[in-house]
Amino acid sequence: MYAKELNERSPMRLFEQSIHGGLGPGNIGVVVARKGVGKTAFLVGVALDDLMRGRRVLHVALEQPVEKVREHYDEIFTDLARTAHLEDIATARLEMERHRNIHTYVNHTFSVERLREAVGFLRAHVHFEPIAAIIIEGYPFESASPAELEALREMAREQKAELWMSAVTHRDAPRNERGIPEPVARVEGAVSVIVSMAHDGKAVHVRLLKDHENPDVSELSIALDPTTMLLKQE
Amino acid sequence: MITDLQRVRNIGISAHIDSGKTTLTERILYYTKRIRVAHDVKGKDGVGAKMDFMDLERERGITIQSAATHCEWQSHHINIIDTPGHVDFTIEVERSLRVLDGAILVLCAVAGVQSQSMTVDRQMRRYNVPRLAFVNKADRSGANPYRVTEQLREKLRLNAVLMQIPIGLEASFEGCIDLATMKAHYFDGDNGEIRRVEEIPDALKAEAEARRHEMLDAISLFSDELTEAILDERVTEDLIHAAVRKGTIALQLVPVFIGSAYKNKAVQLLLDAVTRYLPAPNEVTNEAIDLEKGDTKVTLTSDPKADMVALAFKLEEGRFGQLTYIRIYQGSVRKGDEIVNGRTGRGVKVGRLVRMHADEMEDISDAGAGDIVALFGIDCASGDTFTSNRIRVAMTSIHVPDPVIHLRVKPKDKKAQGNLSKALGRFTKEDPTFHARVDEESGETIISGMGELHLDVYVERMKREYNAEVETGAPQVAYREAISRKAEFNYTHKKQTGGAGQYGRVGGYVEPLEVGDFEFVNEVYGGSIPNEFITSVEKGFRACLKKGRMIGFPVTGFRVVLNDGAAHSVDSSDNAFQAAGRGAFRDVYHRAKPQILEPIMKVSIEGPTEFQGAFVRTVMQRRGIIVGTTETEGFVRVDSEVPLGEMFGYSTDLRSSSQGKAEYTMEFAKYAPVPAEVSKDLIEKYGTGLDEEE
Q: Distance between CA atoms of B490 and B506, rounded to whole angstroms?
């Protein structure tokens, strides 16, 4: 399989081992980090992991234009293809693009209802189904209500899709007793998996903060290459 | 020669097609006294604006369309370089952008940021062009400069900051309040040429204060001095100008101005801003490739005494021969100088040097770094670099994409025949993305370019400018072939037909080449093939690339590694090894899994949300991929990639499925493999007989 090596180096492999059964359809996973650490690249990595297996991904961006989101995919895909010596890159890229759909909302026009409509639209007009994962980037967690998060989870359940989101935190953000920082802590109830990312100048370190209802979060801490967001090769 | 570079501005005016770029340029030339009468627009209700655009271009061709126009404003020399609007002419736009130091991005106060504005903005970003935004048509019904500024921030991600607020809007638009000086500006007289400055009307005082705060807040990031002054409440005009200028040149700020060129309002304030905020030529870093030092980059200096470097960015046929527009990057040019064309290596003598004004040209004796002038009667192509004979550098070559579409043209009569070749000679020189050739088999003339419209325009120009009427065939997509995997070959060419025989054996492998069309690697050691025949093998392969064996289109991305072979002391020859190369190609090609590649266009469709379904349908029907969707209040933009072969007649289809309310732009994106079923159709259509050919 052309995409095998790519998927072997995806951080998702380690997650699947540590997170009990992975994120799972109908659940929300959140990656939380400070600005500029590479949340987008991480989410693109999550998406590519599905795309390379021929599964569909809907990428929703609330802050970035389509073009920008796409550049992230192109950049990471090109790096991956090069390091993995993919045979027939052109076809692999085409397949990836066919399975990916980017949806952006500018001028704060995003709402759960609109997203649901968009998904329905893709299904009806583009035959874009089933959707394995929905990525939501730039979601304003600070102003989010637990009810809205529940509504998003409901939508993920309807679609039987994994829902991955990113959240921006700050250096001095308060943390709850399990180490989960604001603004995610206050809506934690609707979120199944929470991971944090931090940059130490050499690599990006990823830690698991919440793993479903599991009380003892396994000591997962992995280092990623800061450009490709793939596992660092020793 | 202009020696005070601080007082020179080389700018472009870029806009979506109906934003009023032509009217704005016209007004600028009028206020700077380059033309005596501001063009009278017919159709006072504004309906005539579009007509006016066309009429102006035709009637005043050289005034507005000329590649560079020069004017003066408050003892600054401003060179305005024309930047063509449509994306089909991307190469021309990009070449123009290279010679600009700054630009005015014109937006319509009603329509705001449109798809074309995005394309233009992306190009400016790529070439690091600092820009001002001018929100035009503030007098139109539905005008909302605040919304447009918001769109600049949201859609183009620009740090757009309003420097003015309008006094009245739509029909009651009277003038602007300058937030730097906190004065109201009005424009009187028949053509708005009389400026009147007054105190801010009471009704707008609070709004102006609030907006000024926002502006100061945004620009204070670029000046510590200004930040302190704000705290001490002693902000001066100069401090504001310095901070805005710094942010603009650093590409971190886009100051926004408001006006109505058509109603003669606030254009002068925009000109003030050009001189204040856009960079002088010596504030911009320009690099060239040093051809003598293995293509390393060198930074050019704007010193007029240094060795001369200039770029020919546009050719124009005048009444007296070819006019070549050049931008001088370093050193200076004098009449009578001997300069060298870097591409041909040939020296040419500068006979006449002229500066272009709006409607006349002025002979000058010399021109220095930073300036834009024209040379007369010099033979060269667009994009050539000229230098003094002491150095060899080239301005970074702009990537020229290969044409994606072909069209057969046939002159209607004998006279047209002669004119056609003249026209083609000119066009191919002006535009490197436009090609013309005579098909060896059919003897017909084939023109190639970047899109249907691109070629349409040239066919129209043949008729209008060269009196060459032609009949055209159906446009044909420029397919390509490429192998997708490595395959080995071992081929023996042997012929014994009495007399001298032919013998040559070649062994090795072929594989896909990531960048480039063809690479030939010789790994034959120990002389199993004599050295002189290695190039024969290469020639043999090369000959086959012109016509792939699937559908007869050129083969690209092909790498050959030759590592084995055998020769015969008598029967081996150049011919025999060329034939062996050709034979090996025929033998190995199908095993290397060739694919047909087709040009894929990036198509962006924009319109009211209710038509989203229709947009997507038009793309899906054409084997397109929906890349993404952007939603905003009431509007939607669908970004897609569609094979060029499916795009013929698209505008008609889109118009009818959106009641004329949608628009789209299209530009070349990449080559990609065609799906299997299309491949089968193409092979049936073009591929017959290829296998029998030797």
A: 6
For residues B539 and B581, what is the distance between their CA atoms, to the nearest angstrom?
Answer: 7
* B449, β-bridge pairs: B405
* B83/B92 Cα distance (integer angstroms): 8
Q: How many C-alpha atoms does B260 have within 13 Å on its Cβ side?
A: 30
Residue A56's H or E segment, with its range, is strand A56-61
Per-residue model confidence (pLDDT) at position B377: 80
Q: Given an 8 Å threshold on Cβ–Cβ distance, is B630 in contact with A118?
A: no
Whether the per-residue pLDDT at B399 is higher than 80: the answer is: no
- B5-283 maps to CATH 3.40.50.300: yes
- Residue B690 near residue B549, CB atoms below 8 Å: yes
pLDDT in tens, A88-119: 777 788 888 889 999 988 767 788 888 898 88
Q: Provide the shortest C-alpha distance from residue B481 to chain A (in Å).
A: 13
* Minimal Cβ distance to B620: which of A101, A118, A126: A126
Q: How many angstroms away from the CA of A101 is the closest CA of chain B? A: 6
- Dist CA B223 CA A61 (whole Å): 33
Question: Above 50 in pLDDT, residue B529?
Answer: yes
A233 in any annotated domain? no
Where do we find the tokens 């709006």? B358
Name the closest residue on chain B to residue A100, using Cα atoms: B627
For B302-327, what is the mean pLDDT?
82
Which pLDDT score is estimated for B151? 86
Task: Give the nearest partner residue to A101 out of B485, B626, B630, using CB atoms.
Answer: B626
Architecture of domain B287-395: Beta Barrel (2.40)
Q: Closest Cα to residue A230, out of A106, A79, A72, A29?
A: A79
Q: Which of residues 609-638 of B touch A (CB under 8 A)?
A: 612-613, 616-617, 620, 625-633, 637
Q: Do B633 and A118 touch (CB under 8 A)?
A: no
Specify the pLDDT at position B668.
82
Q: CA distances (Å), A65 to each of A46, A71, A143, B133, B173, in order?
A: 20, 10, 22, 20, 33
Give pLDDT, residue B436. Answer: 92
Domain pair B405-474 / B597-680, same fold: yes
Measured distance CA(B416)–CA(B409) in Å, rounded: 11
Q: What is the pLDDT of residue B61?
A: 32
Residue type, B442: S
Residues ≥6 apart with Cβ < 8 Å to B50: B18
* Residue A106 at interface with chain B, using a CB cutoff of 8 Å: yes
pLDDT of residue A61: 92
Predicted TM-score (pTM) of the model is 0.61
CB half-sphere exposure, B436, CA atoms < 13 A:
20
CATH architecture of B597-680: 2-Layer Sandwich (3.30)
**B-interface mutation test, from A86, A122, A126, A131, most B Cβ less than 10 A away:** A126
Residue B80 scores a pLDDT above 80: yes
Beta strand B296-299 pairing with B309-318: unpaired
- In one-letter notation, the amino acid at residue A130 is P
- The answer to whether B567 and B504 are in contact (CB under 8 A) is yes
Query: B405-474 has which fold?
Result: Alpha-Beta Plaits (3.30.70)
Q: What per-residue confidence (pLDDT) applies to B256?
A: 95
pLDDT value, residue B607: 82
Q: For A113-148, how does the pLDDT look when each residue is reduced to its tens digit (9 = 90+)?
A: 888 988 888 888 878 889 999 999 989 998 888 898
- Which of A66, A109, A121 minimises the CB distance to B612? A121
Give the whole-angstrom CA distance, residue B268 versus residue B261.
10
Chain A contact probe: residue of B146, B627, B640, B679 with most A CBs at under 10 A: B627
**pLDDT at residue A42, as a whole number:** 86
**Does residue B317 belong to the interface with chain A, where contact is any CB pair within 8 Å?**
no
Residues of B in contact with A105 (CB under 8 A): 630-632
Residue matched to tokens 């069309």: B517
